Amino acid sequence: MKRHPAINGIKVLLGITGGIGAYKSAELIRLFMKQGAEVSVVMTRNATQFITPLTVETLSRNPVGTDLFSLSEERSIDHISRARWADLMVIAPATANYLAKAAHGIADDLLTTISLAATCPVLIAPAMNSAMWDHVTVRSNLEILTSRGVAVVPPTEGELACGEEGVGRMADPEQIVAAAAAAIQLHDLDGVRVLVTAGPTREAVDPVRFLSNRSSGKMGYALAEAAATRGAEVILVSGPAALDPPSGVTLVSVESAREMLAAVRANLKACQWVIMAAAVADFRPSAVLESKLKKKGRQGLSLDLTANPDILKTIAADKGNRLYIGFAAETEDLLENARAKLEGKGLDLIVGNDVTERGSGFGSETNQAVIILRDGTVERLPLMTKRELADQILDQSMRCWQSGDVDG
Ligand code: C5P
Known about the structure:
- The chain is of the alpha/beta class.
- The chain folds into two domains: 5-184, Flavin prenyltransferase-like (Rossmann fold); 193-403, Rossmann fold (3-Layer(aba) Sandwich).
- 34% of the residues lie in helices and 22% in strands.
- Strands 12-11-8-13-16-17-19-20 form an eight-stranded mixed sheet, with helices on both faces.
- α1 packs across α9, α4 (79-85) packs across α6 (110-117) and α5 (96-104) packs across α8.
- It is elongated and about 90 Å long.
- The two termini are 41 Å apart.
- Bound molecules: cytidine-5'-monophosphate.
- Cytidine-5'-monophosphate binds next to α12 and β16.
């Protein structure tokens, strides 16, 4: 099973409403607990027809709430305490009836009352017959909920309990856990403006030729996507990359190192975090030829190169209390070289990776990295996708940021 670090240690209030998908909620409880969450369940009266409170209580190891007007239940944990306790509320399955009540503020049982009292992120996993799912009323209720920030993991297609085929089955528990991880993360970068650089730079030789490197931009784009997903406003300064910019991200396209430096400078003041994931060319041809270089009559060719500005070093003086994050792609002495770059470039955090390792580095979907912090902490990470690594980098960056241990 895929690990979702965002789930570890959180308190999940699981609401189960009266749909056949309720039988899958038992598995959902197990999966949440396996990921390190504490789970407390509230069931509607109809849900208890599909799965027993005893099953749910045994699996979750927490008292189940079923009745708003039960003296014994309210005495042990009242509805307001339940709402405050939760870091995340998940309603799975969510019936059309629940969506209608939640959208219109009806609070006529324990679950809908808690739904009004809860201030944590909410995720719903609707499940119903496909005709109901397509009904304009259900759709407009869902729109009301999503417009208020409720996350939705939509139903999937397949055989429904009524025997018909169509869209309406509750998403699989693993999908719901993945959506929960995204929902809980949605907001930890709210209000933070992040500048990410990505991709290679191209240094022109003549109108048709350039010097560049093997960077695909995948790591930088994954960081931009992860930061935007977590609520950040992201400016992505990208060298030429064959990737679509993640949604919600402002893309600034550049070619050369000097253009990248100019774009970084222009946006620096507005940002609190700077993540330099770009593989900036260290050298450029000293002169760009105005017309195409001819091979005729030449046995060889020497290019005269000039060093490009080091963007991080150039902006070091404007650091203030910004968080600066850099990368070190190395082929040898990874830790030593990465530490030297952390110091030399005045960074708070550096991500080092050995590009000669299998599955690491340029162009690959995965990366095996080590994160080094200024206080000397070294976190060695296993091989993972660049998107997963992006979240790990953001987690560590957030720790630096929150601790206030930012080099000024
Ligand atoms: O010195 P090296 O190129 O290995 O350093 C890598 C880090 O420095 C990366 O974060 C990269 O984006 C940044 N860099 C830079 N300007 C350069 C070269 C690299 O900011 N000219």
